# Entry
Amino acid sequence: MPRRSADFEGLLRAFSAAQVRYVVVGGVSAALQGVPAVTYDLDLVLDQDEDNLDRAHAVLVELEACFREHSPRRLEPLRADLESRGAMLLMTSLGPLDILGELATRWRYPELVARARTVAVADELELQILDLQGLIEVKEKVGREKDRAVLPLYRRVLREREGGG
Amino acid sequence: MAESHTDTNQAPASTSHDREGQDGVDVSLIRWVLSLTIGERLALLQRQADSLTRLRDAASER
# Structure
């Protein structure tokens, strides 16, 4: 039975161990940078390099990934699905995982890497995460009510990190 | 008899106005999370997500 909340470290290690290149976005990226908000899924944007997508797809197979929205039918992501610019909302053996092709700002992997910070989470686990300013710009662009609602929190964390108090 | 909070070991109770900025954000919570290492923040997020999931499931079973 799949986990109802993501095993964040487990998922990240699965991709990193397979040498998949990705940038962490969304709630996990925010939390790692100090935003005190909970999220239940992991959001990643993959490098669209062919070999990288091959490795990523292999990880998804290993994690028994399937599309959440088709539950209880089991529809597994194809290798070609990873080339999409849209969002793949998946359930895996380690919980919910979203693979995003691009963000609302039209940023794909290269643009995100330029805006990413590299952080060491644990032994042999180094992550590229979209920086807080980038996360704020994405939420501003998306403009949904739930995104606008957390912007004061994100902005305050950014000010605290920058020493503005 | 203590005449001020400095005469005791107790700090004055903070009001919600003290804890929150003008934007209503709890700055004390932000500062606490920022005091954690990256690994500690990930572990905290995991515990929170797991705990809330359990609580939500327990509530829905009633």
About this structure: The first helix of chain B runs from residue 16 to 19. The CA atoms of residues 5 and 12 of chain B lie 6 Å apart.
